[in-house]
Amino acid sequence: MPLPILPLSSADLAAGQSALERLAGGAAGATRQLAARAGSTGGQVLGALRTAASATGVNFEVLATKAAMESGFRPTAQASTSSARGLFQFIDQTWLDMVQRHGAEHGLGAEAAAIRPVGGGRLSVADPAERSRILALRDNPELSARLAGEYLKEVSDKLTPVLGRRPDAAELYMGHFLGTGGATQMLRHLGSDPGRAAAEILPAAAAANPSMFKGADGRPLTVAQFADRIRERLNKTYAELGLSPPDGAMTFQPNTPAVMGQEPGLWNSSTPVRTAHAPERAMVSALVEVFSRMGRVTIGQGARGAEEAKPNTGHGSGTALPAAVVAAMRDR
Question: Buried (b) or exposed (e) across 5-33, using 16+ Cβ within 10 A?
């Protein structure tokens, strides 16, 4: 079943690179550093982060820094100590939860509907092959970034009553790293018992991430030391990317999502058209209707997964649309 996310256009990729350069204040060294860490997939990852920032309202810098910290910009990164995978290292259950609750907003309506509770607070999918496919969607950088944006907003909402204010960047990252339940426990102990060993509070998290809970000498870190390590790690990553850590409480911009699951498809294709504005959607809808009635064109998958126009053999000889037209339809 094809992903309901179109391959990123060259404009998306170029914009992602230029956005990074602007955010880095034109620092070529920082740009090269990130490109080196991202490897051959760097352009695709940066374009995906830019698209996700627009779709979720979460700042591009925040998403980029989180991706650097979680996976080093590697879309298929797999943790050795847990089920965490992908650009933002979602574990299996968190990914299923996010797809179930937010997937329909980002073109994964069928996948969201397939996920069901199975008892004990766990989620699964009746068909094992479908479950594996849904979990494999973590390897798609745009989907991973979109759901990471939604997750960060939820973390902020849940930690706000604990702190009495919106979390700052380090507290937000703690929520992403530990989950809101774990971060809530850690933040409460930070205020009441900062000298307690952090691993005593969250032993499972400590076992999965020993380097974050132990000092260089192997001794367990206290809650206060663990919080400092989170902040130091965040600040170091921002510096490596040539960026300045944001001050104060984190806020989010209104999102402008292209809700792909609700948009028209490209000529007999289940893949929706990515359009962001109402006039564009109306134009696309009209064109889709015209060509659907003509039955002249369908969109097929090319060897590299990119879509290419080809005749619909089920409706006569057909006439392929020029590639430039198809590309223009994809651009925002």
Answer: bbbbbeebbebbbebbbebbeeeeebbeb
- In the numeric block, which tokens belong to residue 306? 């990119």
- In the structure encoding, which two tokens stand for residue 211, read together? 């380097």
193 with 313, same domain: the answer is no
C-beta of residue 242 within 8 angstroms of C-beta of residue 30: yes
Q: What are the φ/ψ torsions at residue 117 (nearest 5 degrees)?
A: -70, 145
Exposure string over 285-311, b if 16+ CB within 10 A, otherwise e: eebbeebbeeebbbbeeeeeeebebee
Average pLDDT, 10 consecutive residues per value, the chain (332 residues): 39 47 43 55 83 94 92 92 93 97 96 96 97 98 97 97 96 94 97 97 94 95 98 93 90 67 35 42 45 41 34 38 44 44
Tell me if 257 is assigned to some domain. Answer: no
Count of domains forming the chain: 2
Question: 134, 109 in Cβ contact below 8 A?
Answer: no
Q: What is the pLDDT of residue 202?
A: 97
DSSP reduced 3-state for 220: strand
